[in-house]
Specification:
By secondary structure, the protein is α+β, with helices and mostly antiparallel strands. It has two helices and five strands; from the N terminus they run βαββαββ. Strand 2 and strand 3 form a beta hairpin.
Length: 91
């Protein structure tokens, strides 16, 4: 089972999808990130491990590895009912 995150804030045109990929790779998570028409970014992570999800979210908020990201994430919605990985930026 996968988890879907919706990232709000200044998240399009600021390397957000790449930023998500880099953070996921640090945690050895597969997934995808897609720009949405409402200016959010949808992230699908191939895990339902709450600890890993929480760690990924903490990495997005704190940027401990100082990855390039020129926007800001103001809110993250979590939905755990996705069951496939599909997006325009797969990692």
């Amino acid at each position: 089972m996968a988890v879907k995150l919706i990232l709000h804030g200044k998240v399009q045109g600021v390397y957000c999808r790449k930023y998500c990929q880099e953070n996921a790779q640090k945690l050895n998570i597969k997934g995808s990130a897609s720009n949405m028409p409402d200016n959010t970014v949808k992230v699908i992570l191939d895990t339902n491990d709450e600890k890993i999800i929480d760690e990924f979210i903490r990495h997005l908020k704190e940027n401990p590895f100082k990855f390039s990201f020129y926007g800001n994430i103001t809110k993250i919605d979590i939905n755990k009912n996705e069951n496939f990985i599909k997006g325009d930026y797969n990692f």
